[in-house]
Design a protein that fits this description.
By secondary structure, the chain is of the alpha+beta class. The chain contains seven helices and eight strands.
Length: 241
């Protein structure tokens, strides 16, 4: 069988009214101590991300065939991101705990994995070996909890993801904690249309969502004044027309 290469891209199905950028001007030193960076950032007056709009399936592209059930099950097994694990281990954490943290936060990042670790250090099963066969937790998820999360405005996909990440304690409180604190980007992941150049269909924009042109003009910034992240105050600057 001849091998072919595919290109994977990510695009937006719609553009919101406001674009908020969070610039983290700090680094984590030994002992997980934040250190503020004294640097200047040149921010343009206009940011145009219209080129990031997803165009869906293009002429000349073909859909990839569905994977066999066995192959799909094997590829869906969670694997810890090695970079996240190495960084956490360098801070003094147990390697098994770090692997669990990366897997249960879907490899979202070091900070998300750290939050997961700190909140579950006293779990009775924290030292239990990772069992890939036990990852299928759909049967233990209460549908009423899913419905409750949906009633709060979360999409069903995000609700299921949060409850699966809260294995052993798949409750409403744990799920919302995962969405807002451990993996806050999940609440916005529904706006992302991850596509392959050979297997993506165009996703229609929901009628109730705003959809701009993807061109944003700077009108306000919030900056922190202080010698460290532990003290100081915030100042807002708004452009007056």
């Amino acid at each position: 069988m001849k091998r072919h290469s595919i290109i994977r891209t990510a695009g937006l199905t719609s553009f919101l009214d406001y674009l908020v950028l969070h610039m983290r001007k700090f680094v984590m030193e030994a002992g997980w101590t934040p250190k503020k960076l004294d640097v200047y950032i040149d921010v343009p007056d206009i940011i145009d991300i219209s080129h990031m709009r997803s165009k869906g399936l293009q002429p000349g592209e073909e859909l990839l065939p569905e994977a066999a059930p066995g192959v799909e099950a094997e590829s869906s097994q969670p694997v810890a991101n090695e970079e996240i694990v190495v960084q956490l281990v360098s801070m003094g954490f147990n390697q098994l705990h770090c692997q669990k943290a990366a897997i249960n936060t879907l490899n979202a990042g070091v900070e998300e994995a750290m939050n997961w670790l700190l909140s579950r250090m006293d779990d009775p099963d924290i030292d239990a070996p990772i069992s890939h066969g036990a990852q299928g937790t759909e049967a233990s998820i209460d549908q009423s909890t899913v419905d409750t999360l949906i009633s709060f405005g979360f999409q069903e996909e995000i609700a299921q993801m949060a409850l699966k990440a809260s294995v052993k304690v798949a409750t409403f409180e744990k799920a919302t904690d995962w969405i807002f604190n451990i993996n806050p980007n999940a609440s916005a992941s529904s706006d992302m249309d991850t596509t392959r150049s050979s297997n993506s269909m165009a996703t229609p924009v929901d009628a109730g969502l705003p959809d701009g042109g993807g061109r944003y003009q700077l009108f306000g910034i919030v900056s922190h004044i202080g010698t460290s992240t532990q003290c100081g105050h915030y100042v807002a600057h708004i452009l007056k027309r």
